[in-house]
Structure formats: structure tokens, C-alpha cells
Specification:
458 residues; alpha/beta; Arc Repressor Mutant, subunit A; Aspartate Aminotransferase, domain 1; Aspartate Aminotransferase, domain 2; 3 domains; four-stranded antiparallel sheet; globular
Length: 458
């Protein structure tokens, strides 16, 4: 038993030891009820202090993976997840009655298609005959498959992109597993991975997406089970992955056959960039999530998941024991919106409007010597001298933005804030003045010279 545990440890930190033990539990090599070696025995064999092993054991105990029974020893138990503070809760603007709340990350309601005619056209809503009906309306599935960036083996509909990510994580990630994400990344994704006890590793980005060389090094160093990507309108940076970059990343993953690629295409039809996916080259290992919240309405609460049956089939089956399916009434509305010429035209106008708003704010900031990125989507990622000072300065103007820290897996070279510029339809110059003044303040309250525009995030 001692040799099994110590042989599985490749990182002799407390977290690394805990993760190794958890992986053995997940693999069935340490079954429930197994008595673990003593802290001193493990410490001696690994050449670390007993304090390090004790910390690892405490982490496992807090997660419910092991259980201490006094003098009887420590035993493997079923995991129970700890409650921890969410990064997501830190994103909202802390400005009471802010005149401009640009922290939300939500689309402009006035640019969403009108649901009135769609609701009328779906009739009396008799779309369900049995609790065991297919989870996706057949006509909607046909439209989704036609729109998909690669032919998915299975496809289902769930209650929004975060519900999709939560359910995919539940199928492919276990406590202690290594998971690779972009750095910066979407805070709720980091929260979801934290709740299952994953060891998250961030890979830096440039203006074409996740950096392939860095991904290769990370996968060579860590036995990861999944890589999570935002292929278009990356939140928060606005980067959209190029087809060439997607091919490079797929090439990296070919050398690591146990790694699943999970893509969150959260911006959907309001993204200016064309759909892109690793699934064109790795369809058997790519799970793609297509959201309709930003393009057709957050209250539709709908997203589609497509990919290998090995992931999607058990996900859909497990859902039968909970909600069963996403409202077929709402699915009917979405089907109508995806096929109605007027709704299609409205989404196209929204896409153009968001592009114009991004360009206007980004251009105004650059004129004022501020570094920012906003290539796609509805958000802008702005470099600031000091995050907290910038937010306080903006709050004095009644402007709320999101802090950059919750997005960061590991700290970046500079501070940032995220600004939802998709909501900025007017007063661009006035807003840019306030943003620039806040961005260029340091802890002494003094301004700095213009910084060069960054090519990447490290």
C-alpha cells in the first residue's frame, strides 16, 4: 500500500500528494474502507516532512475522500465536496445604483430578437407526450446539427452554457484530476472545477488563442484529463481562435489520447468570427457547447452540447433523474428564432452593433494611451496600473466594471478589469475619459505614460 501511494506521487507538495491519492481512489486502486499508511511512513518514503503529508491528509478529509477514526487510523471514504467562496460572486459591480453597470457580461436587451411572434407561432405548446420523449425536439436537433462546426456523434440540449459545463465536468473530471484552461479564464468555469476538486493548470494566450507550445509542455508535465477552451469571443479578452491555431492545438492533443477538449462557444451568433472547433480534427474527443443566451436571450436558458456518445449519452441519461429535459416550449421558441428571417436579421444587426461598439471604445482608449483588447464578443479587457484603485476611481463616476483577478488562474504580469462594452451605445468619449483616468492611476494616485499594446497574456 505504501509503495502504491508513493509511486503515484509526481508532485511532493501537499496538494500533489492529495491529488495522487485521490486519483488512486478514482481509479479503484484504493477502494472505500482501505486503511492508509501512517503520516510518518508516507513522509519518510517520499522524503518530505510529516507536516506536508498531514496537510495533504487534511485536504482529502475536508473533501470527504478520507476519514480519520482516531487510533484506528485513516481510511478511504466517499468524497464530499467542501463549500468554498465562488469567484463568480466577485464579478458584480460594487457600485450602489451605478449609472453605468458594465460589470454584468450580459447582452443589450434592445438588441435581442423579439419573442412575441415566436411564442404565437408555437401554438398551444403540446410538445410533450411522455416523460421519456427525446430530450431535443427533432426539428431543433436537425437545425443544430446543420449549424454544428463538425458532425457530432450525439447532441442534447440543456439549461444554458454553465449547466452544460457543469454536466460535462461531472462526466469527465474527478477529484484530483488535472485540468487545463486558458489563463485568463471564465470565473464560473474555475468555480465548477474547484467544486469537484480538480487541479487547474492555466496556459497563457496570445491574439490567436491558447499557445500550443505552452499547452504541450503542460500536458507533458501533468496527466490532464481535459482542456477547456473558448473558441470565439473569449471571456474576458475577446480573442477568437483562428482555424490555424485550432489545427495546432488539435495536433498537440493528438499526442495525448486521454485528454478531452471541451469548447464553450458562449457568444454564439453575435460573435464576429466564424465558428471554429478542434472537433474537425478530433471529433471523437471534442465536446462542443453552443449557447444562445447572448444572441437570442438569457431567459431562454438554452445551450446545446454535442460530441462523442461516451460523454453525451451518460450525461443525458443522468439528467433523466433530475430535470429530464429542457423546456420543449422554449426549444420551440429557439427553433422558430433560428429559422425566422426577421429574427435572423435582428441577430445579424446585433452582431454588427456589438462590433461597432467594441471598435469605438477600443479606439477611444488607444487614443488615450490605454492598452486593451476587444477583438470579438461584448467584453473589453483593459490593462490598469492597479485593479482596486481603478475600480474605486470608476465607482466615483458611477461606473461598475468587473475586477480582473477572478479570471486569473495564476497572476498575470499586469492588473486588468473587464468592461462590458456591448452595453455602451453612446457617450463613448466620456466613458473613455473615465476609463483612461482610472487605468493610468497607480497606488500613489499619479498618472503614467501610455503603455504599449500587449500581444499576449502571460
Amino acid at each position: 500500500m505504501l509503495a502504491l501511494i508513493t509511486g503515484a506521487v509526481d508532485d511532493r507538495s501537499a496538494r500533489g500528494i492529495a491529488a495522487a491519492v485521490s486519483r488512486l481512489v478514482t481509479a479503484g486502486q484504493l477502494s472505500a474502507g482501505t486503511r492508509l499508511p501512517t503520516v510518518r511512513d508516507v513522509a519518510r518514503e517520499l522524503g518530505v516532512s510529516p507536516t506536508t503529508v498531514s496537510e495533504a491528509w487534511r485536504s482529502l478529509a475536508r473533501a470527504g475522500a478520507i476519514q480519520t477514526r482516531g487510533r484506528s487510523g485513516t481510511f478511504v471514504a466517499a468524497p464530499v465536496l467542501p463549500r468554498q467562496r465562488l469567484r463568480y460572486s466577485q464579478l458584480g459591480g460594487a457600485v450602489a445604483a451605478a449609472s453605468r453597470d458594465l460589470s454584468t457580461g450580459v447582452p443589450d436587451h434592445d438588441l435581442l430578437p423579439d419573442l412575441t411572434d415566436a411564442l404565437k407561432r408555437i401554438g398551444d405548446g403540446r410538445l410533450t407526450t411522455s416523460y421519456l420523449d427525446a430530450p431535443v425536439l427533432p426539428a431543433l436537433e436537425a437545425v443544430l446539427r446543420d449549424r454544428w462546426p463538425y458532425p457530432p456523434e450525439r447532441l442534447t440540449v440543456v439549461d444554458g452554457a454553465l449547466d452544460a459545463l457543469d454536466r460535462v465536468i461531472g462526466e469527465v473530471v474527478r477529484f484530483g484530476d488535472h485540468v487545463v484552461v486558458e489563463n485568463p479564464a471564465f470565473p464560473p468555469l474555475l468555480d465548477l472545477l474547484q467544486t469537484v476538486g480538480a487541479t487547474v493548470v492555466g496556459v497563457p494566450m496570445d491574439d490567436a488563442g491558447m499557445r500550443p507550445a505552452h499547452l504541450r509542455r503542460v500536458l507533458a508535465d501533468y496527466p490532464a484529463v481535459a482542456v477547456f477552451l473558448q473558441p470565439r469571443a473569449h471571456n474576458p479578452t475577446g480573442v477568437s481562435m483562428s482555424p490555424a491555431r485550432a489545427a495546432e492545438l488539435a495536433g498537440v492533443l493528438e499526442a495525448f489520447p486521454d485528454v478531452v477538449a471541451v469548447e464553450d462557444d458562449h457568444a454564439g451568433d453575435i460573435a464576429s468570427s466564424a465558428p471554429v472547433s478542434l472537433g474537425n480534427l478530433l471529433p471523437e474527443r471534442t465536446v462542443h457547447v453552443a449557447s444562445f443566451s447572448k444572441s437570442h436571450g438569457p431567459d431562454l436558458r438554452l445551450a446545446a452540447i454535442g460530441g462523442p456518445a461516451s460523454v453525451i449519452a451518460p450525461l443525458a441519461d443522468r439528467r433523466l433523474l433530475g430535470p429530464g429535459w429542457s423546456s420543449r416550449l422554449l426549444q420551440g421558441v429557439l427553433l422558430d428564432l433560428l429559422t425566422d428571417p426577421a429574427a435572423i436579421a435582428q441577430v445579424s444587426r446585433a452582431r454588427d452593433a456589438y462590433a461597432a461598439r467594441r471598435a469605438a471604445v477600443l479606439g477611444a482608449l488607444r487614443e488615450r494611451g490605454v492598452s486593451a483588447t476587444a477583438a470579438d464578443g461584448i467584453n473589453l479587457w483593459m490593462t490598469v496600473d492597479d485593479q482596486q484603485i481603478a475600480m474605486v476611481a470608476l465607482a466615483a463616476h458611477g461606473i461598475a466594471v468587473s475586477p480582473g483577478t477572478p479570471f486569473c488562474v495564476t497572476p498575470l504580469e499586469t492588473d486588468h478589469v473587464r468592461v462590458t462594452v456591448g452595453l455602451v451605445a453612446d457617450d463613448v468619449a466620456q466613458l473613455a475619459d473615465a476609463l483612461a483616468a482610472a487605468a493610468l492611476l497607480d497606488s500613489r494616485g499619479s498618472g503614467h505614460r501610455a503603455r504599449p499594446h500587449p500581444r499576449g497574456w502571460r
